[in-house]
Design goal:
Length: 331
Amino acid sequence: MFDRSKPHPVQTTRRGLIALAAGLGVAGLPALAQDRFPSRALRIVVPFAAGTPPDVSARIVAGKLADLLKQPVVVENRAGASGTIGMAEVARSPADGYTLGALHYATATVVSLYPQFKADLVKDFTGLGLIEWGHNVLVVSPSLGVNSVAELVDYAKRQPASFGSSGVGSPAHLTGLMFQRATQTEAAHVPYNQFGQVIGDVSAGRISYMLLAAPAAVPQVLGGKLKALAVTGPMRNPNLKDVPTVAELKMPGVQSRTWSGLVLRSDTPKEIVERLSRDLATVMAMAEVRELLVKQQAEVPVESDQQFRELIRRDTENGAAFVRANQIKAD
């Protein structure tokens, strides 16, 4: 007869297998998570409006990243407060690798203006890699009668001048302040909520000048609506070959570049961070991606993920110092 006081052989085997599986599951959890990642769609949170340079570059990368990951990669725009609203969304999301952030230079440099943003860009996020470098173009209206930086400086010293931007703390605002320092001129800062309106007012001569992002500036210059006087990047813009750099004009203090890159929460499993970093590097090496970025007036990055992380640290610290020195206040 079957003795119910003794474990049945089959029951013992089941229990043993369950215990063994549980033990292996715990021991092999990182490998299992890595093998199964990704098992669903990912999203890239862009903390700026659709059509802006960070958004365009993120969408270029997202399409190719989806091909590598064999999963959809959806771009979501969460604009506002110089990018801190979107980055807060990334910080609140699970640290599972499915939510990436498109961190931009503009956010890193002015994050100290927003005490309501509780995350730390350096400690709470880890960089996967850069996806673009950018630069600004110093532009004026063709009707202003100014044909060089020297003439613009003379103009600003003879009469009241103004410069436009898309808001307090934006790259155009910060670079405009750098220009004033370098040239020892004064100009009233005029921030706009509507990006198209500020371009229109500079073109019409209602605003004296602007340090405009290259993707927006180049078409306007080539179309004759704006006149370019200088570029802030380290090299001349290939579409504006006759326009000098600020370094050529002996104004190194105005030289500046913007950047965008993808980040994850810093507590994301290491295996997932490394996987996405490798895949992003593969995407950035694709000739098609590089060509698309160049067409958008972007400079293709060559820096490593470690160099990107250092860039975040450097520009966050330098930006906070610049904000303090110039007593910049948020809107």
